[in-house]
Amino acid sequence: MKSKWRYVPAVVCMVAIFISSSRSGDQLDSVLPWVQKWLPGLADFNPMHYVAYFILGLTVAFALGKRAATWSGCLLNVIICVLYGLSDEWHQSFVPMRSPDPLDLLHDGMGAAAAALIVLLVLTVRNRRGSRNYTGR
């Protein structure tokens, strides 16, 4: 039962992405000036795809547990995130003044892949240092 709770952060992240992508183009345009006060270099919300899916990739890695420290777990993480990104782009086709964009899906995948690879690297290094056979090289 404990391991099922590990999926909660990923589900919460997916809900947040769904809610954000449910906003119409007008709603997003009205929020952009406020966000630009905090992030002055932000011209539009495109970089947020990297950020949102990087966070989703981290939460999926948490859900995968030890499997996230394997190449197959890393690949599974990216597949889960990209499939969710695909469903999100489809969902946007029903939102006023929004449309699916293959580049958004690419950015989603890049954010997820970066998170999955960082988790793989960090967990691999941590596991090597924790093993009895670690020589410090």
UniProtKB/TrEMBL annotation:
What InterPro entries does this protein's entry cite?
A: VanZ-like
What residue ranges are annotated as transmembrane? 48-64, 69-86, 106-125
**UniProt key word Cell inner membrane:** no
Instruction: Name all VanZ-like domain ranges.
Output: 11-122
User: Pfam families from the entry?
Assistant: VanZ (PF04892)
Keyword field: Membrane, Transmembrane, Transmembrane helix
Q: What is this protein called?
A: VanZ family protein
Species this chain originates from: Cohnella herbarum
